[in-house]
Design brief:
514 residues; alpha/beta; Rossmann fold; Penicillin-binding protein 1b fold; 24 strands
Length: 514
């Protein structure tokens, strides 16, 4: 183990400081901390991109473990935007908020800007969630009314989270936080069966006995909630509400775009924070420069409030009703044990003050160099230093392409499934499947983890935040170094051909290889 129990804060008044944590080294350190800690870890990251990279790394290192990684996603809209978050994002947020309150051990990953958002009171989820099970009595009319009040939208056919449809005695429901829509079959006023189904083929994928239904929104649309919204709106804004589309839409039970920045009005401005949803005993892990990220976020908030707050048809709530200040956040975090991670080493770490250097080093330069007779010379040289190397391919297809490329090396890499397979055995050179963007170098353990980005000397194409099928999901050729003369290739526009090498052409006075 890299992390020792002594490295962890022993109580809520203690702070630990870990240096030498570049790249994926921070993820491995957090993984081992989560395995040792007797409390959940709330991991704060400076931005969403780094949070997504860290999540992939944590899931890679924790494969086969019971420890789960929860991430509260950002709405992916700018402060005071006149747009609403995508239903998939809302679904993931509600699912995460519902799950994190009862975990005894695990990791909750949050971009710090998301941490600053005030949230619905904790009692809202508890009051609006309910269980379904086979044999249960269920009135169709009463259930439809409850779905409407929970924010679900009636459609002819369900395709995305937050929708429901009714056909005779069948209710199709794409519940928030669910991996697939649910089909409820009624016999008279009793649930006869519950089953997940594929929305495209309509075929049953799984039969279940019970289901926990979450609300479709982070705010209620009941008559009392709408009345509360109207009262709070009129008390907060000195405008003619009959000229405000948001006020009129909510009054009719509709969900207008941009409603996220009016949520406090449903709760009389009495909002919660993410810490209110978490167990009382947690440890905080801070990754990166959070102060700078918070400062930039608040600059955006204030600028956009200044730009858009003069529209009488769309009056805006002051920022303090929607966001925590830096002082408020850090005062809350100080009530818990904190671990601070940084890339740089502490020059003279004082263990008595909780300072430790973890020993991660810069990644070696192993990129393919097509100008050399042996393009893989850098990787081959690394393998000759007795360093154990694990290479991560994005997909099974990418792994096969890399294996073909590595035939030029003296040794063929072992094909492994997960990190713990490599860490626990004596393999000197191995390959596995993991969509990582960063690697790590731990000289004291003779370990080096490399992603495809390090091998090809380029950043791996950024994956979409929400999984979708795309034409480039498994690119067959990432770099010309993989091609040999005579290899068959498929051109997007011109069809099938064979690779015959590169040719220098002059285009607009500049010579390039094509």
């Amino acid at each position: 183990m890299l992390i020792k129990t002594a490295y962890l804060p022993s109580n809520s008044s203690q702070q630990s400081y870990w240096g030498q944590c570049p790249d994926a080294g921070s993820a491995l350190a957090i993984t081992e901390a989560a395995q040792l800690a007797n409390t959940p870890l709330l991991v704060l990251v400076n931005n969403t991109d780094n949070a997504l990279s860290l999540k992939a790394e944590l899931q890679f290192f924790l494969a086969g473990s019971d420890i789960q990684v929860h991430m509260l996603p950002d709405w992916e809209i700018l402060p005071y935007d006149n747009f609403s978050a995508h239903p998939d994002i809302i679904s993931e947020r509600i699912k995460t908020l519902n799950a994190i309150g009862s975990i005894a051990q695990g990791i909750i990953l949050v971009p710090v800007a998301t941490m600053l958002h005030r949230l619905a009171p904790t009692h809202y989820l508890a009051a609006t969630s309910f269980a379904l099970q086979t044999g249960q009595a269920l009135s169709l009319d009463a259930f439809r009314q409850r779905l409407d009040q929970a924010g679900y939208q009636f459609t002819e056919t369900v395709f995305q989270a937050g929708e429901y449809a009714v056909r005779g005695s069948l209710i199709d429901l794409y519940a928030m936080g669910s991996h697939a829509p649910l089909r409820i079959e009624l016999f008279d006023e009793q649930i006869e069966s519950l089953r997940h189904f594929d929305p495209d083929s309509q075929r049953t994928t799984e039969i279940i006995q019970a289901f926990h239904l979450l609300p479709a929104r982070e705010f209620p649309l009941t008559e009392p909630a709408i009345s509360q919204f109207r009262q709070a709106f009129n008390a907060q804004f000195e405008v003619n509400s009959s000229h405000c589309p948001i006020y009129q839409d909510v009054s009719q039970g509709l969900v207008p775009a941009g409603i996220e920045y009016y949520i406090p009005l449903f709760y009389d401005l009495k909002m919660a924070t993410l810490l209110d949803y978490l167990p009382a005993q947690i440890s905080i892990v801070r990754v990166g420069n959070l102060n700078q990220a918070i400062e930039h976020f608040w600059q955006d908030i204030n600028q956009r409030y200044s730009d858009y707050s003069h529209d009488v048809e769309r009056p805006l709530l002051p920022p303090e009703h929607l966001f925590l200040s830096a002082e408020q956040l850090f005062s809350m975090l100080k009530l818990h044990a904190n671990i601070h991670l940084q890339e740089a080493a502490y020059q003279d770490p004082k263990q008595s003050q909780g300072e430790y250097n973890l020993g991660f080093a810069e990644l070696p330069e192993v990129a393919i160099n097509n100008k050399l007779a042996n393009p893989l010379l850098a990787l081959e040289s690394l393998l000759q230093t007795q360093t154990r190397v694990l290479i991560c391919a994005e997909t099974a297809g990418r792994r096969e392409a890399l294996l073909e490329l590595f035939k030029q090396l003296p040794n063929r890499p072992d094909e492994l499934v997960a990190w713990h397979d490599f860490y626990a055995n004596d393999s000197e050179f191995a390959i596995c499947i993991a969509p990582l963007e960063r690697g790590l170098n731990l000289p004291q353990e003779r370990l080096c983890l490399l992603s495809e980005g390090q091998i090809f000397g380029q950043k791996v194409l950024q994956r979409r935040r929400r999984e979708k099928s795309t034409a480039n999901a498994d690119i067959a050729i990432r770099d010309l170094a993989e091609l040999s003369l005579g290899n068959p290739v498929v051109h997007h526009d011109h069809g099938v051909g064979r690779y015959q090498g590169l040719k220098a052409l002059s285009v607009d006075g500049q010579e390039n290889e094509f």
